[in-house]
Design goal:
The protein has 326 residues and is of the alpha/beta class. The protein has one domain: NAD(P)-binding Rossmann-like Domain (Rossmann fold). The chain contains 10 helices and 13 strands. Helix 1 links the parallel strand 1 and strand 2. Helix 3 packs parallel to helix 4 and helix 5 packs parallel to helix 7. 45% of the residues are buried. It binds uridine-5'-diphosphate. Uridine-5'-diphosphate binds next to helix 5 and strand 8.
């Protein structure tokens, strides 16, 4: 009998790549999603596989599952600023109530659980790059507060289940990640810029573009998560690519890559937009023997190839971010 894995948020960007990985490693995968931001087209290629099943369910409500469970990967959550603005209450509930349900299920099944945390727990960081030991600089009542605080609560609850119930737990802090199956209209910078370039529009750079991010290709991230799950380390681990770039230079890279003839236009910087972000991956390197292997040039090439497969209708379905100046 193959081991059984529950993946919450399975129809999302990262969840669907986790489904691919665990199916290819021979696991039985139970994919759960309420489809509020996920899309079945990300996992439909598994639907005829008897090792794969899909359950439409909101994990903020009690979860009932028959049979044994060996692992749970909790990836259900909206994860882009456009979503936090539109559905802040669901965002808070899935990482608080949803995590409570996931941990309760893990306890009942004696399953090991890995929860998806985020670099957002560091807020607008005053320490650079960010090591796991940094406690962060978060505005609880700003536009990102619903996400950041829910994820911080999720980490605390996970540690409490680890301590009180001796549950086997893992916490990954995910930094900006990109790749195929990102939602074109999720408002995040990479799909925004690529979509704009492919439609022949100007690229909307927020602020002066001097803020930085460090982008990790999805395959590297999935490898890091896989190694963390099977390690014995239960404190948070940063997984991300330390190759940092300003948003302005990133926009110029996208213009060059897509051969777009358009330009950058400056828009107001959204409130609480972190000024810089780069993971310190010392722990991942030493404990998981992991570091990213895919350069931004290569990752962007693969991601652009994916976006080019979208239909014109999909490409034109854009949504604009609430330009909430700070
Ligand atoms: N950004 C931008 N133009 C856009 C979307 C985002 O300049 O159309 C900037 C945004 O202000 C931020 C960075 O790109 O500084 C990354 O934004 P994203 O929403 O992708 O993720 P974040 O890391 O801020 O959560």
């Amino acid at each position: 009998m193959s081991k059984r894995v529950l993946i919450t948020g399975a129809a999302g960007f990262l969840g669907s790549h986790l489904c691919d990985r665990f199916i290819s490693e021979g696991y039985t995968v139970i994919a759960m999603d309420n489809l509020i931001t996920g899309d079945l087209k990300n996992i439909h290629h598994h639907f005829n596989n008897p090792q794969f099943s899909f359950v439409q369910h909101d994990v903020s409500k009690h979860i009932t599952l028959e049979g044994s469970l060996d692992y749970i990967l909790h990836f259900a959550s909206p994860a882009s600023p456009i979503d936090y603005l539109k559905i802040p209450i669901q965002t808070l509930k899935v990482s608080s109530l949803g995590t409570h349900n996931v941990l309760g299920l893990a306890k009942a099944k004696r399953a090991r659980v890995l929860v998806a945390s985020t670099s957002e727990v560091y807020g607008d960081p005053q320490i650079h790059p960010q090591p796991e030991s940094y406690w962060g600089h978060v505005n609880p009542v700003g536009p990102r507060g619903c996400y950041d605080e829910a994820k911080r609560f999720m980490e605390a609850l996970t540690m409490a289940y680890n301590n009180v119930h001796q549950l086997e737990t893992r916490i990954v802090r995910i930094f900006n990640t990109y790749g195929p199956r990102m939602r074109l209209n999720d408002g995040r910078v990479l799909p925004a810029f690529i979509g704009q370039a492919l439609r022949g529009e100007n690229l909307t750079m927020f602020g002066d573009g001097h803020q930085t991010r460090s982008f990790c290709y999805v395959d590297d991230l999935i490898e890091g998560i896989y190694r963390l799950l099977f390690s014995s380390y239960n404190l948070p681990v940063n997984i991300g690519n330390p190759d940092e770039i300003t948003i302005k230079d990133f926009a110029l890279e996208i213009l060059k890559l897509t051969e777009a003839k358009t330009q950058l236009i400056s828009m107001p910087l959204p409130a609480d937009d972190p000024k810089q972000r780069q993971p310190d991956i010392t722990i991942a390197k030493s404990i998981l023997h992991w570091e990213p292997t895919i350069s931004r040039a290569e990752g962007l090439k693969r991601t652009l190839a994916y976006f080019k497969t979208l239909t014109t209708v999909e490409l034109n379905k854009t949504e604009h971010r609430n330009f909430n100046a700070s």
